[in-house]
Amino acid sequence: MAETPAEAIAHDDVCPICHLLLFDPVRTRCNHILCASCMAQWADTTALSNIIPSRLDLNLSDFSPDYVAAIHAEANCPMCRTLTTASPDTTLKTALAQRYPLTYEERRVEELALRAAVAGSGHGTEGMVILIGNKHRIDRAAENRNTHDWTWFLRCSRPDLIEEVRVSLHDSFRPPQLTLRAPPFEVHRWGWGSFTVKANVVLKEPYSWITDGNSAATRNPVITLDWTLSFEGRGNQGRVRAKVRKILEDPHDDGRASPVAWPHMEADHV
Ligand SMILES: [Zn+2]
Ligand SMILES: [Zn+2]
């Protein structure tokens, strides 16, 4: 048995949900502070996000590597019940780790054990951020009318879970269908008109996308993300917050689940 650390925890540094020292604190827009995992657990029941228009300079590195979909998703604050989002408070995290070195380390070990247990059980939900969009520039020297130099892209915080991305371009491109098996998931072309790029994002076995309305027992390895190329300025992007889970296949199932389409979105200007 580990000895109880002799550190007295100030009231303000205790999580209002688990009543332990705050670990990986997140701050809600309504200014409540709680553990990232406590917020995640609370918000886990909220629905999956659609494609949300985002600034083009937003990078995957802007998201925590320990990203949990639920933390960033809109949820009702467990403290005051207003609809809110939470973001990591790294300043407080550093301060807590310095103020309570023993307790903070103890909390870290607990959290890791908890995460390992959840992941190992196969029931754990993992979060994923997908950025989808296109870069664009006008190529004055281009032949014919193909002056739009565009690069469609899909970036994902968990590329290790992606089996492949099947991209469908306009029929006038040769070939119109491409399968990208490793990052970067990008297609660079010249063209004269905008169209909708359709991407089927396929997860490795045994992962499944968690979507509203798909049953917990059926593995759903494919989602479809539509992106209409934006020829405004430098391009545009949107983000999707998705959740995945390991699902062990029923041996009698043919495994061909139908793709789930996300609501289509037109990009806003950057
Ligand atoms: Zn907590
Ligand atoms: Zn609140």
Automatic annotation (TrEMBL):
Q: Which UniProt keywords apply?
A: Activator, Chromatin regulator, Coiled coil, Cytoplasm, DNA damage, DNA repair, Metal-binding, Nucleus, Transcription, Transcription regulation, Zinc, Zinc-finger
Q: Which Pfam families match?
A: YEATS, zf-RING_UBOX
Chain intervals for the UniProt region annotation (Disordered): 251-270
Q: Where in the cell is it found?
A: Nucleus; Cytoplasm
InterPro entries named among the record's database cross-references: YEAST_sf, YEATS, YEATS_dom, Znf-RING_euk, Znf_RING, Znf_RING/FYVE/PHD, Znf_RING_CS
Gene Ontology cellular component? cytoplasm; Swr1 complex
Q: Does the keyword DNA damage apply?
A: yes
Which segment of the chain is annotated as a signal peptide? Answer: none
Q: What is its main location?
A: nucleus
Residues covered by the YEATS domain: 120-270
A GO BP annotation? regulation of DNA-templated transcription
Query: Any idea where the RING-type domain is?
Result: 15-81
Q: Which residues form a coiled coil?
A: none
Domain free text? The coiled-coil domain is required for assembly into the NuA4 complex.
**Similarity field:** Belongs to the YAF9 family.
How would you summarize the oligomeric state and partners of this protein?
Answer: Component of the SWR1 chromatin-remodeling complex and of the NuA4 histone acetyltransferase complex.
Question: Main role?
Answer: Component of the SWR1 complex which mediates the ATP-dependent exchange of histone H2A for an H2A variant leading to transcriptional regulation of selected genes by chromatin remodeling. Component of the NuA4 histone acetyltransferase complex which is involved in transcriptional activation of selected genes principally by acetylation of nucleosomal histones H4 and H2A. The NuA4 complex is also involved in DNA repair. Yaf9 may also be required for viability in conditions in which the structural integrity of the spindle is compromised.
Name used for this protein in its record: Protein AF-9 homolog
